[in-house]
Design a protein that fits this description.
With 351 residues, the protein is α/β, with parallel strands linked by helices. It contains 15 helices and eleven strands. Strand 10, helix 15 and strand 11 form a beta-alpha-beta unit. It comes from Corynebacterium glaucum.
């Protein structure tokens, strides 16, 4: 185990589907003491058969987490988050908590309702596939991926004092600082890059680059399929690429999009306006696609300039274009540094 693993300590992962299970695999491969739970006894049995410490008893796992002061990772669908947080509050009252849910503001609200903000740091790895469940888990899923680390609580605490992260009334509690450091070290251990983002900004951003693509892919798949056998026969790479995420389980798509409905509707309106403009120019005499094609090409070039080659990650960033700042959690001015990194779309490393 390297120094990041030793500083991280134990990790308890609640939910061992694609994201939680892949995280468990990666941490175990790096020598971290990691264990978890899944509601499926069959999935737990398969994980145990592969040599992992996974149980179908949530209470037993959370009791162990409390005894080891483990970092708890909530890796369940949003509709199960509230009940998991209730169980954590009862059985793991001393543990730090993070999550991998694709929305942040609704989770933060649930955490606040339970008085757990001082020990919660929201997270969201921008990685995944259209598959789900333990069978879909893999090592290396997060390599090079952006991993959102929400810092709203620190920002609020720092804003109460004369300067960010220090001074009377503005000090971020040590409990939160410790969890923030644990989460960032865990992210680094699995080869991902921590991106500090506030919850509201995160949800608006993923509505654009993650949730809207799901809506588009579903609609495009339906439109293509209405072309019948010939459309199905001729569909090639561009159609397959544009509809790939339509292969995601409908329940997961609904969970993502519905819990982030407000920002998603706003960006959907932007998208529909672009389509309406394209329709109007294509219906003209002569028909024209020029305006949207040029705007889209420019936008694609700009996005590609910050994109790496990782095949599954939603928004990885190339080494040449990702500003990285080293931050010492709890040091004077450290929250202001996080704000600066967020403004640049950069990465944070802790020391």
């Amino acid at each position: 185990m390297n120094h990041l693993g030793s500083e991280l300590g134990s990790v308890c992962i609640i939910g061992n589907g694609l994201i939680g299970g892949s995280l468990l695999r990666d941490l175990a491969a790096r020598g971290v003491r990691v264990f978890g739970s899944t509601h499926s006894e069959a999935a737990a049995a398969r994980a145990v058969a592969e040599g992992f410490e996974v149980s179908s008893s949530l209470i037993d796992v959370l009791s162990r987490a409390e005894s080891e002061l483990a970092l708890i990772v909530v890796a369940v669908p949003f509709d199960a988050v509230a009940s998991v947080l209730d169980a954590i509050a009862e059985h793991s009252p001393s543990c730090g908590v993070t999550d991998v849910v694709s929305v942040k503001a609704p989770v933060l609200e649930l955490v606040a309702q339970r008085g757990m903000r001082e020990r919660y740091v929201g997270g969201h790895p921008m990685a995944g596939t259209a598959e789900s469940g333990w069978a879909a888990t893999q090592t290396g899923l997060f390599q090079g991926a952006a991993w959102v680390v929400a810092y709203d609580y620190a920002r609020e605490c720092a804003g109460a004092g004369p300067s960010a992260g220090q001074g009377a009334g503005g000090r971020v509690p040590d409990s939160w600082v410790r969890v923030f450091g644990q989460v960032c070290r865990m992210v680094a251990l699995v080869g991902a890059e921590a991106v500090p983002v506030t919850a509201r900004k995160h949800d608006e951003t993923v509505a654009r680059i993650s949730h809207l693509p799901h809506v588009i892919a579903e609609a495009l798949a339906v439109t293509g399929d209405r072309g019948g056998p010939m459309a199905q026969s001729l569909a090639a790479g561009s159609f397959a690429g544009a509809t790939r995420v339509a292969g995601t389980r409908p329940a997961l798509v609904g969970n993502m999009c519905e819990t982030n409905a407000t920002p998603l509707v706003e960006v959907l309106d932007e998208y529909i306006a672009l389509l309406n403009d394209a329709r109007a120019t294509l219906a003209g005499n002569p028909p024209s696609m020029q305006a949207l094609a040029e705007a889209g090409h420019t936008a694609h070039e700009r996005m590609s300039a910050r994109s790496g080659a990782r095949r599954e990650s939603v928004s990885p960033v190339a080494v040449s274009s990702r500003p990285v700042m080293r931050v010492h959690p709890g040091a004077p001015g450290w929250v202001a540094q996080l704000e600066q990194i967020e403004a640049l779309g950069g990465r944070v490393e802790v020391f």
